[in-house]
Known about the structure:
Number of strands: 15
Strand content: 5-15%
Largest sheet: 7 strands, mixed
Distance between the termini: 23 Å
Shape: globular
Helix content: 25-40%
Strand order of the largest sheet: 2-8-7-6-5-3-4
Amino acid sequence: MVSVEPVIPRQKLSCGVSRTYEEQCIYLCGNSLGLQPRRTADRIAAHLEAWATKGVFGHFKSHEDSELPPFVDLDEIAAQRMAPIVGAMSGEVAVMETLSANLHLMLASFYRPTKERFKIIIEGKAFPSDHYAVESQIRHHGLDPEYAMIPIEPPEPDRATIQTSHILSIIDKHASGTALILLPGIQYYTGQYLDILTITAHAHSHGITIGWDLAHAVGNVELQLHDWDVDFAVWCSYKYLNCGPGAIGGLFVHEKHGTVALGDGSVGYRPRLSGWWGGDKATRFQMGNSKSNMHGILTFLTDRFLDFVPIAGAAGFQVGNPCALAICPLLASLEIFALTSMSALRVKSVSMTRYLEELLIPRQAHEDDASELYRIITPSDPAQRGAQLSILLKPGLLEGVMAELEEQGVVIDERKPDVIRVAPAPLYNSFSDVWDFVVIFRKACINAHEGQAQHKDGSAAMAGAESKGWSHIK
């Protein structure tokens, strides 16, 4: 039942395990893994053909027989097309690595602890990889996370979300000792959309650098990273950007941090972990360095051996050359986003998620009373959430509910012990998807509550999904 509303014609997206698979499903799991655009296979095939027929010449020769640029320019073209989605100047975006690797690269550059300011403020329920990255960076500098990592927790134990005022108060409390703040644009568990503009401005008023993990925000909500004066941000592209499992990531570095000053025989730029792909393209393939001339073998390449000179902007933070094959799905997805706008997608998204909320929490009581078996923990204010609603079930219902949903062809995400996450994606989901999901979900809740769900105690997952490891992964 996945369909594409007028934003994107139906025939341009594929739903289902294969193109010949006849059973339909209700796929509301784009917050975990987006669906594959039909054109993705075409772009990948075109790249493989170019590689097969042109070999190394494909790096620099244009491909008249496909819409892809030369291999060496793929990342630059992708970054230019990504910039409007995150509200950035084209030079402020790089397409590279994965989210966690990019986060480490950003922390290596922006976390500069001193004796007075060494703390990192992080959301207490941050995605584990963010927590691991911060903890390891703190230890890398010889510090103890016990006192150098400041988690922001909700002030009330029964509250899942964090008010902006509370975040600002934690920043105020620790400002004098804080070197950096890392927060999620949208919290993965609750779906709360943080006030990036207000929090960033408040951090800067204390002279604190702030970065954002936008894994659940990019392609989901409107972002204006440049205008909001964000220092840096990182994201993945396999969720709302629909680029496939483990797809290539991206990062944003504000132009003020990406300047490269040349003069007096020196080069001035922000400290970073450097690699050849971040170097000036004019000298990228000149294999010189300032310490050794390899016995003169390479002296013909240049009048003098070169110090590293980064590309100005986010591209200067690249390390190794990105996988050309991995960029092809991203380019395919960005072509689809270019057919619309984030503002148009956001309008539809707000409407669909509001519709989902209204169906889940009806104003008038239903005969089935299913709404007593769950509650929504995502903020009800559309400005404080993206597409996702997180639903907290009564204890003990999750296994039965998930078993029946899967039996009925509904694909959503669970977070044990009691939360499901439902995310209507505006690019390919419809309002009928939302309606059908709620009908099936309410029935599943009642059956689970009454102990009458098929394959009680998770046997459905064990019989089907568990054989593929999906239940364990979730």
